[in-house]
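Pair request: fold both.
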Amino acid sequence: MSTAATPSSGSNLPVSAMPHGSIRNGASRSARKLRLWPAIIIVGVLWGFHFAADHMEMSMFVRFVSRFGMYGVVLLVFVVWWMFFSRAQWSDRFLALAVLIAAAIVTGLLADKKSFGSMGMMGVFMASFPLVLLAWTAWLLVSNTWFHFSPRVERVGLCGVILVTAGFFDLVRWEGLDGGQHSAFAWRWSPTSEDQFLAEHTKANSVATASPNPIAANAGPALQILPGDWPEFRGQNRNNQVPGLKVATDWQQQPPKQLWRHRVGPAWSSMIVVHGKLFTQEQRGEQECVVCYHAATGDEIWAHEDAARFEEPLSSAGPRGTPTFAVGRIYSLGATGILNCLDAATGRPIWSHDIVADAEADPKPAPFTARQWGYSNSPLDDLVIVFAGGDHGKGLLAYRASNGERAWTYAAGKDGYSSPQLASIGGQTQLLMHSSAGLIALDPATGKLLWQRPSASAAFVPIKQPQEVGGNQLLLQSENGIQLVKLTQDGDHWSPAQRWDSKALKLTLNDYVVYDGCIYGFDDNVFCCVDLETGKRHWKGGRYGSGQVLLLPDQPLLVVTSETGEVILVSPNRDKLDEVARFQAIEGKTWNHPTIAEGKLFVRNGDEMACYELPLAAQTASAP
């Protein structure tokens, strides 16, 4: 038998010259190069989409759906590549796929249930998926292309990379999304901001319940609205304007002076200020609270507690609505639907209702409905009017302020995040409510329908308040962004007609104000200026995240709070973004509306609250 046809172990022949069947299985796998360029492209497309989505104009809902859809498509394409076009050994292909599935299941089961909450497996997938694919592809580049590791090392390493990358998310606590839908994380074992607040609050022994409360008992005479107060959500007329105030704008020489700053319980509620008292809502463990503070010192005066807790993973725990003050009383709506009427001076309960029961709404809201993210509307006073939603024709509820008795109900739609609002249209006071059913106007005393503008789609759930802009015109949020509606009257009949509908201002969590023929607000997460007459954008520039804006019309000046807790002064200018000054007021994700009252700026988020004395502009002496 010839020995030339059978190379020995010491043969110097190149591998390519050896007969194919004579190569050992291990050597074959060691020499095989994987086809990695498709994986690199797939992962590049995924991370490129992440970058592009942050800079593309799209609504919050579209961004979420497109991101989730992209993840699904990328996962499918990546698995197809790995199973059929990667050139890996079939045993390795099935092994890695099995490890990926097992890692997803185990990670989902072991993930922090409190933070991921109802998002469950989907939340873990959304958080971990991009990093798992990136780590997978990077390991194959290192092991197969750059360093040519043995098949065993390559195989074991790949399984380890998948498990470690996915398992990392069992070590962290998900702290929700910011306005751009970027996740925030903290170590699972670290105390939450709420934990730290409760520990400090208990240690200071400053818990003050509504009845009895020795501090509140000496609160002085009945509270009343003074000039410069901020008695309800978005101010006296719910339009985010602060009339009669002019501030110094050189904050290098005259910065706002911090009067106090301290932790608060989580909530997305804003603050109201009346007669030197500040009122807001907070979550304190298993208690949902309405809290009264001294506006000048930040000292707690009283806290009314209800045994209720609302929490969902995307935006965390706590109430969403803002209290309302009227005639010595506080009206508040909690995230679970508890409507309270409290004595403003003492916190003493006067009456209370469960609006879920009153509206005969389903106590367990369906996914992706407004109530899944909690009640967020702020009550109106006089007749205490709140939006409850539901399917039984009682979406809007009106209670008598004196005793809490039901005055009327109206079928105002199933879902909605905006609040009831009074408006003077054609000399007539009308109650406006914008919900998934559309915009309706009622007689506030009787609940009788005056006119309506049905929604084009019941899937659209408005967040922002309608705003009067003169000439019987209203600005309101639309499916595209924002629209201007003109109202005409013929006797007792009103007819709403659209003047324009614009994508130039896609409203989400953010607010807007109107000044001198221009709308200033946030197009998704970027500040911009839009022409009131045409709906066309003049400019777009300030990247302040999901911030808020107030207007000082007498100066004029815009006060913007960024999502990261900065306060920025912007001069209203239709030609360009004109920043005047800025400073860091608080830390953390700041979605809450700011408040300016009694010459002070109040800012808060889910972690802390602060008060700053604003420097006043120098008064110009008038000529004799």
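--- second member of the pair ---
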Amino acid sequence: MDTTSSDAQQRQEGVTPPRARIFINYRRDDTEFQAKLIYDRLERRFGPENVFLDVQGIQLGRKWLEEVKSHDDSCHIFLSLIGPLWMSIMAARDQAAFVSPATDWVQYEIERALRRDSGICVIPVLIGDDVPFDAEALPGQLRALGEFQQAYVRGQHFESDIEFLIDKLETIARELPEPVTADREEQPPVPVPAVAWDVAPPPDAAHCENVLRQMMDEGSLVLFLGPRMAAAPVGAVEGTSSLPDAEALAAALAKRFRVAQARLPQIAQYVYMTRGRPDLYRTVSRLLTADYEPGPVHRFLARFPGTLAKLGHQKRYQLIVSTNFDTALEKAFAEEREPYDLAVYMASGPDVGKFVHFTYEGPHTTIHEPNTYTSLPIRLDYDYELKRTLIVKIHGAVDGNVGGYRWQENYVITEDHYIDYLSNSPVESLVPVQVLGKLRQSHCLFLGYTVRDWSLRVFLKRIWGGSLGAKSWAIDPNPDALEKEIWATSNVDLYTADLGHYVGMLGGLLSQPTRESAER
């Protein structure tokens, strides 16, 4: 390498380099010594305030994770040091996570740098000669490392290689855009159908961008599907024109058994006590087993991973929690040929009181020990990343047969059912630990979830105590003032919108190029 280049001369002459914040990611068992050498050379050129190495850059008294995340989020250039042991350590840590869950912080830092539109320049730096590096063998979220141009720092060529790396970093730094100090251009509200907005406002573009960011960049959004979901049927059932929600089921039961209109748990309790179990379940099953077509929400969720891939983004999978008994969501995923796992709460049969896990590959497992079961497609790390979509049906499901496992009369529907389901034991002995961890670490989007029904509020109370830990959102086509007050005390912002139109807004925004990509 010609060390008389203009960049080298500028360094020798003490010219101030272009400003760039550089984050060094490494494994101590692989490249600790080389990471310190590289830090020393970069620190001399770019200044100690602009180069971060965990053992060098963490201030006394600061929490380690907060400090790492702070520097990771604010960096311009991310160096991933890959030595001779890096691939084998990565594979071993990934396999061990299933037996003894633990966060791989090196992988965590890389995944944060690889987030969509992070604006971070990622450089894999191979440390040593003939370093094994096969991106296709990495966990899904890390395979994008193979798309970036690699740099090399070899033992016998250390000086020339580090000089070349510094030249490259300075070139990148000079091309960084100037800091933007002006306020972000205000986005006009996305038009929505005319509905009553006196209780809650309609969702705007900023809200939709925030939701999509959580779904695409962070993978930290859990979807809750409530009883106000609807879908168009193939054939009408007892005069209904759409997949019956909780209110329609309650109305049908009230009409069939000639009782006063009330909430579904109350009417179901009355029918169960006065007419008996067979009459209740037979009527509910007749209403729910028609061949209903999935609605727009079901189809949006089923298409979401494939849509990301078609648009060139990293695939993200979802945890979808449903209170509904019908199979419209599963049908939508099957029609899209999008893999998913299913976890169903059993309110009857030999596994009563437990969840049963149905894998996409076929086998099923009764979850006898929720606090130790770790075979759901959710990584037990800091972000609880999903390896495949997981649908969790917390109130049971309509009569079904999955992989030879049959169930009938599997509904949490009466008041006694809800009381038994929600109050007889700690939530950790009911909800699988992976689902519980993901819920408590995530933002939530509630679609058609009616919190004025005490049965639905109790489940949220059991999971989060009082308020949800992360800011969350609820979309309801016809909310009332009571729901607004309840959501407000739970750290949830309420918006008024037709659910089909709402997911149409998300889909339209998803397909638009970002401002950053348009300016490149």
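Observation on the second member. The first helix runs from residue 6 to 12.
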